[in-house]
Structure formats: structure tokens, C-alpha cells
Amino acid sequence: MTAAAQGRPKQGTAPSGGSEPHEVGSVGALSIQLGCIADDFTGASDLANNLVRAGMRVVQTIGVPTGPLGADVDAVVVALKSRTVAPAEAVSQSLAALQWLQAQGAKQIYFKYCSTFDSTPQGNIGPVTEALMDALGTDFTIATPAFPDNKRTVFKGYLFAGDVLLSESGMQNHPLTPMTDANLVRVMQAQTRRTVGLIDHNVVARGEAAIRTRMDELRAQGVGVAIVDAVSNDDLLRMGPAFKGMPLVTAGSGVAIGLPANFGLAPSSQAGQLPPAGGWQAVVCGSCSLATLAQVAHFRSTGCPAFGVDPLRLAAGDDVVAEALAWAAPLLPAGPVLVYSSTDSQTIQTVQGQLGVTEAGAMVEHALATIARGLVQRGVRQLVVAGGETSGACVQALGVTQMQIGPQIDPGVPWCHAVSDAAPEGLHLTLKSGNFGTEDFFIKAFTALSAGAPT
Predict the structure, then answer these.
(1) Which CATH code, of 1.10.287.110, 3.40.50.10840, 3.90.79.10, 3.40.50.300, is assigned to 34-269?
(2) What is the structure's pLDDT at 435?
(3) CATH of 274-451, one of 3.30.70.100, 3.90.230.10, 3.40.50.150, 3.40.980.20
(4) 418: left (phi over 0), alpha (psi -120 to 50) or beta
(5) What whole-number percentage of the chain has pLDDT above 90?
(6) SS3 394
(7) Which of 140, 134, 76 lies closest to 102, judged by CA?
(8) DSSP symbols for 121-152
């Protein structure tokens, strides 16, 4: 494809040392208000984004840090890659994150999972929730993946994606965590030995006192986990004060909009400031969600160059990574490039049939992560990564250990700033969940960053 400039956002200049890194420094151990554990990297950014918008200064770590944070922030989100690992491993990682967060003085713990609640009958949402409850010595918590800004709502315990039940939204065909039941009480009950109950919309609509009363009633009945309805941001804001003082909250990112006020914080533009952006621009995309497939198609329709990574060629041993980097190098100065493996379900099934589900996913993730690192080594300093598993692989390949959270691009997706061994002067990075973002997200992201403000 040609490197046509049609539809391109303003391109940055090649890096020559860049602006000074704007990362947290080592100033000794500090106490944080909210300690968060996220089960994937894009989900961590999604949560951090909502906390920043509500006034919290937030750092996202990649994995569990090995020492004190040393950052003057209000909240820390520990990003794990635990959504699709074995339940025992997910529990082990989550407990390690909890221990570190407690050592930082976290006053409340937030276990964050996807707004599509995607998991398997064995976990990992239920087992991790139970392990955290046991470690914190609490007999009750809530669970709600509701995120109305991204059209994820819960009504009578059923999870909706837009106007349809989750089980009819395309998530029933997810290659790793297919969701064939939208009833969250049933889904959660299959994963936990504790009794699962419901706080329905009639209660939530009456506000904090009614929610607290219902929680007390459920606890008295022996319920350990309560699914909570929410169909609007107003519902989430009503929940916030009701959850004040709870040792553990489990949710998608939506509930986060109502928690910072419990710590005396209010929205502030200062919470999400990042350094000025520079360098080349690129997108690395591994998600096969319908939303991401539409974003790939839109990017290509603008005339911007795109390189498709063929999983069948990877499986055959072709050096697709080298081809992609050689293709991208001369195009980068003209504007953003896209490298993607997003493809249709039939091709995915063919590759999975040849290699196995886990092996096929790992193969593609490794290739895209290697390409992402190669692009940064060639001067990319504004990088969009689409897909949860892909994001995890890419930040690990880049050697990123923590990210400062900046302004929102679309609901659930912020720009971040990180220092990497591949970019010691720093780079701007956004990790996009496959299901998030408008059709023009890739172009919009770079335009917003060059303008220095959120859309």
C-alpha cells in the first residue's frame, strides 16, 4: 500500500532525546488511598482512566513492583496478565499484588475485570475474588461490570452489551473466554463456593441508604457476593458512597467514577497532565473484536498504510516480523502506520486447529510484541496497541514497568506516558481494549495527542 497522507493527523518529529521524562521519582514510601488489581493491561488503563477523570493522580504498574512505589499519587493500578491463565496462577498473582498494595498503605482494594465479565466456568473472576476476600478477612463484597459509557449495563442481574444480551453480542464466539450466559448471578455462582445474590435496580435507584440496607440484608442471609445492577452513570455515582469503607470492591471500571469522592477528591485537569508528544506514530493491533475490525477497516479506508500479519504464515515459519519492520521503516516519517493480525473467526479457528488455542494466541502475541519493540527502536514514540492480550505482550516486550495516566481518548481508553529501555527518554502509549473506541479511534487518538488535549 502507498503511504498516502490522506486523513492523517499531524505527525510528530523524529526523536532526538525528546522532552524530559515525566515519571514518578523515588521519594520514599508513600501511602495511597486506593489500591487496584486489574486482570489485564488494557483493563488496568481503563480503570486508571476513570479514576483520573474523577480527580485521582494515578500510576499504573506493569506487574507487581519489586520495591516501594515512591510516588506521590492517590491510587495505583497493578496490571496483571491473569485473565486467561490457570485459576491457581491468577490467584497467586493477585495475592502478590494485594500484599504489595497493602505495604503501600492502600485503604481500599479494587479488583478490576472486564466490562464483559468474560471468564470461564472455572474462573478467574470467582477464584480471585474469593482469595482476596479471605486475605482481607471480609465475608462480603459486590460485583458489577457495568460501564454505561461503553454501553455495558446490568439489569436484573443480566449483562447487556448495547441493546442485546452479552450472550448475543458476539462475545459468545470469543476465542478464549466465550460468554454464552448473560446472567451474572449464574456465571459468578459457578465460580465461587460463596452464595451469590443480587442488588437490583429498584434498590440502586433509591440511593446510598437503600443500597447499604440491602447489603446488610444479603450478608445476614449468608450471601458473600452481590451482583449490582447499573444502567446509567447516575447509578454508579449512587453506589460510590455506599461502598465507602468496604475492604474489597470488585467491578469493571465503571464503579471507579464514584469512589474518589469518598477520599475527598474532585475532578481536576491537573490529574491527567502528560509531557508534550513527539516521534513517529504507529498502531499495533491484535484484537479480533467487531469494534477493532471496524477500526482497522476505517484506518485503511483513509489511505493510511497497513500491514496484515498472517497467522498461517507465522505458523509456517515465515519471518513476517522482519517483513513488517522493513515495510514500516520508510513509511513512518509520513504518518501513522498500522500492523495488525485482526482477522475473521474462520481463520482464527484454522490456526487454532493447527496449533491449539493457547499456542496460536501466544504465537501471534509474540510476533506483534516483537514488531512493537522494533517500531519503537526505529523512532515510534506514539504507540497505540489494541487488544488486551496483545497489550500485555507489547508492554512486556518494551520493558515498561509503570505508566503515568493521562487524558481520555474515548471512554475507557487514555493516553499514558512511560519510560522504556527501548525509549529511555519516554514514549506515549495507549492500550485499547478490543471492544472499546469509536470507528475512527486510531486516527482520533493521534489527533488528540498532537492537540495536547482529550477529545
Answers:
(1) 3.40.50.10840
(2) 85
(3) 3.40.980.20
(4) beta
(5) 70
(6) helix
(7) 76
(8) TTBSHHHHHHHHHHHHT-S-EEEE--BGGGTE
